[in-house]
Design brief:
Layout: H1 6-9, H2 12-22, E1 53-57, H3 65-71, E2 76-80, H4 85-94, E3 97-101, H5 105-110, E4 119-123, H6 125-128, E5 143-146, H7 149-158, E6 165-167, E7 188-192, H8 201-214, E8 219-223, H9 229-241, E9 246-248, H10 255-259, E10 264-267, H11 276-283, E11 287-291, E12 305-306, H12 309-320, H13 324-339, H14 341-358
Parallel strand pairs: 1-2, 1-3, 3-4, 4-5, 5-6, 7-8, 7-10, 8-9, 10-11, 11-12
Helix pairs in contact: 3-14, 8-12, 11-13
Length: 365
């Protein structure tokens, strides 16, 4: 913040809201689902989306590429960034179905207008930690989609609304991310993503410092950029005091190629709804090192979770003794079974068909 640390400015009510989010109220079980969906099993063509006018409202469409490509084969598709509410309203009058990617201002404004078509919203982790969901008129949203259970739990804890809900995880394109037949293992650790507070950069440095002290042949390779000058200052100071082989490799366009000569992928995040770099790394034969953030155990094998730098080192040392080619095949199979883009897109298509057919969605899990 340009005017001072956010933590210093947090008032008592905001602190209580965070305590409520972080706590685990007795009436919300971590395994409980609030789907409110209608099963359409056995209805055949009812689960096809064909000849429809579909609107996607999203200021940023990176998560929608595969969905838009798939539905665009049989339907007329328009994509709009949601910058002006009057244009969003006009497009919704045209559409048979509107998909809002993010629970943010465009959705808030759209749900304050007369309803003209069914609405699906996909809520990501970023919005779950804000007051944005509380501003939505949920009675005008036909289905709320989450990418993992922990984000759904945060919504349920903080919001009284109970729209029709379901969970469909993010997807990995296994044709793009491949396991090289001649994959060899070295001591290169990959980190992918912007270096911001969410990625827990101090823990990243301390984990790598512990690993390097154990074996100084290990190197850390960062595919990403700094987003916060304070964190960059911390990195610069830390590495000046603790000379470590940390290689900044900037923004990487060809991620599958970049991953080819790496052996581990590390995530030290505070919280993630998915963390693509972990799944993409596993699909590419890398061994994951995953900080045990809230919800990680529901996404990835518990064998790869660690709690602190000592645990991280213990995980590395264990993996050094494993048959890593065999583990790599097993890890790729794990990603294929849970996050394959074709399976996930099929679930989303069935969800859209269900909303068009019933107004509420279908049971997709």
């Amino acid at each position: 913040s340009t005017s001072g640390d956010a933590a210093d400015q947090m008032d008592a009510s905001e602190k209580q809201r965070w305590l409520k989010l972080i706590g685990r109220p007795e009436d919300v079980s971590p395994s409980q689902e609030y789907t409110g969906t209608v099963s359409m099993k056995g209805e055949g063509d009812a689960a096809q989306v064909t000849g429809k006018k579909l609107l996607f409202v999203a200021p940023q469409t990176s998560f929608l590429t595969d969905i838009i490509r798939q539905v665009g084969k049989r339907n007329e598709v328009k994509v709009y960034d949601g910058a002006r509410v009057n244009e969003t309203v006009d497009l919704m009058e045209w559409a048979d179905l509107a998909w809002f990617e993010w629970c943010d201002k465009p959705l808030i404004e759209a749900t304050r207008q007369p309803k003209t078509c069914p609405i699906i919203c996909r809520l990501h982790s970023g919005e779950a930690f804000t007051e944005l969901p509380a501003q939505v008129t949920w009675g005008r949203v036909d289905h709320l989609l989450f990418v993992n259970r922990s984000v759904q739990e945060l919504f349920v804890r903080s919001q009284s609304a109970r729209p029709s809900m379901s969970i469909i995880p993010n997807a990995v394109d296994l044709d793009r991310f491949y396991l090289p037949e001649d994959k060899t293992y070295n001591k290169k650790i990959a980190v992918v993503g912007y270096l911001n507070y969410k990625k827990n950069p101090a823990l990243l440095l301390y984990c790598f410092k512990k690993i390097y002290e154990y074996d100084n042949e290990y190197t850390l390779h960062v595919a990403g950029l700094h987003q916060d000058p304070r964190i960059k200052l911390y990195f610069d100071h830390f590495l000046a005091e603790n000379p470590l082989p940390v290689c900044y490799e900037g923004w990487v366009e060809d991620m599958p190629l970049w991953l080819e000569d790496k052996s581990y992928v590390m995530s030290t995040s505070l919280f993630e709804a998915f963390h693509y770099s972990v799944a993409e790394g596993m699909a590419s034969g890398l061994m994951p090192l995953i900080h045990n953030w809230y919800g990680a155990a529901g996404l990835y094998p518990s064998d790869y979770l660690f709690d602190d730098p000592d645990d991280c080192l213990a995980l590395i040392r264990r993996l050094e003794q494993e048959d890593r080619p065999s583990l790599a095949r097993k890890n790729r199979e794990f990603v294929a079974c849970r996050y394959d883009v074709n399976q996930i897109t099929d679930k989303i298509m069935r969800l859209m068909a269900g909303v068009l057919h019933t107004g509420h969605g279908i049971a997709v899990e």
